[in-house]
Specification:
This protein is of the alpha/beta class and 316 residues long. The protein is built from ten helices and nine strands.
Length: 316
């Protein structure tokens, strides 16, 4: 058994993986940590496998880099594959466009050692933008997997859906295996579907099993964000898709009698948010992208009880 596994799910990531792998090759203060790297190829059509093969010979003889293939499309399936194959006590997920700082592994492992009740630990993620966005775009940063919660560790609040992202996340393999159901309802973005939040589903099951979820600011990384992710079409689709799983996520840790209350609270609460938002911005929704994004998120949340029923019926 190793101390630590770095798992990188990827889809057509041949151009992105080298940057991440170079950052992992440059890690410091890891002399007393036994670790490995797993690349999970989620049915790529580019030369991802060739890139991994090239890097296998570049890593230290004390650190292995393994290539795994997961044909079932969806980030959740890639992560499940990594969990099954990982040899580490702790498993650190990195997206293939997230670049860790040179002490990332040490900061992650030492924090987990110091917090034995932590089932999952999320890091501080900064935005590395291809095109610098205007200041008002900070309102959508959390939806772009940017997490900047200050310089002090703190507990997340799962019941408020205040959670880290799997773009930079460490979980205990033992906790993961104890916490998960037979299947997940949300599988991540697949094909033309932008509906994600599978990372929140994973974390809510960990919380449901009694484990803490922490923010570790010393686990710093940078999320590379290309220009197209700041364009209107992408952001409006992202806003709606992030709202759709809201009701389902709220019910994971709810008691049976609470679910009807959540149903009506979600409908009424988001109806009110939409009305107030339309009054506040009036004719600016068509021209101002960030208010338009927020409106799409509110609409997605309004529809989320019906989307939740649809997903649950589909997965039976």
């Amino acid at each position: 058994m190793l101390d630590f596994t770095v798992a990188i799910p990827t889809y057509n990531g041949a151009n992105r993986l080298p940057l991440v792998l170079e950052k992992l090759r440059s890690q410091v203060n890891i002399e007393n940590i036994s670790w490995e790297v797993i690349i999970v190829d989620n049915n790529s059509s580019d030369n991802t496998s060739k890139i991994v093969q090239d890097y296998q010979s570049r890593f230290s003889e004390f650190v292995s880099i393994r290539y795994l293939f997961e044909p079932q499309q969806g980030a959740a399936f890639a992560r499940l594959k990594a969990i099954k194959e990982a040899k580490g006590t702790y498993i650190a997920f990195l997206d293939d466009d997230v670049l860790p700082e040179k002490n990332w592994i040490y900061a992650a492992y030492s924090f987990c050692q110091a917090h034995p009740q932590a089932g999952a630990v999320g890091g501080q993620i900064h935005g590395d933008f291809e095109v610098e966005p205007p200041p008002e775009y900070k309102r959508v940063y959390p939806f772009l997997s940017i997490r900047e919660h200050g310089s002090k560790p703190r507990l997340f609040e799962p019941n408020k859906l205040n959670l880290p992202t799997t773009a930079s996340l460490v979980v205990s393999k033992k906790v993961w295996n104890e916490s998960f159901p037979d299947h997940l309802t949300l599988s991540g973005r697949v094909g033309s579907s932008m509906v994600a939040s599978e990372d929140y589903e994973l974390l809510l099951y960990i919380h449901k099993n009694g484990w803490e979820i922490w923010y570790n600011p010393n686990m710093e990384s940078y999320h590379k964000i290309p220009a197209h992710r700041l364009e209107r079409g992408y952001l409006l689709s992202l806003g709606r898709s992030c709202g759709l799983p809201t009701y389902f996520l709220l019910t994971i840790n709810a008691r049976s009698w609470e679910k009807p209350i959540l149903f009506f609270r979600t409908l009424l609460g988001n109806s009110l948010r939409i009305i107030l938002h339309l009054i506040k911005y009036r004719g600016r929704i068509r021209t101002d992208l960030i208010p338009a994004f927020e409106l799409e998120f509110f609409f997605g949340s309004l529809l989320s009880p019906f989307y939740g029923f649809y997903k649950l019926r589909k997965n039976k």
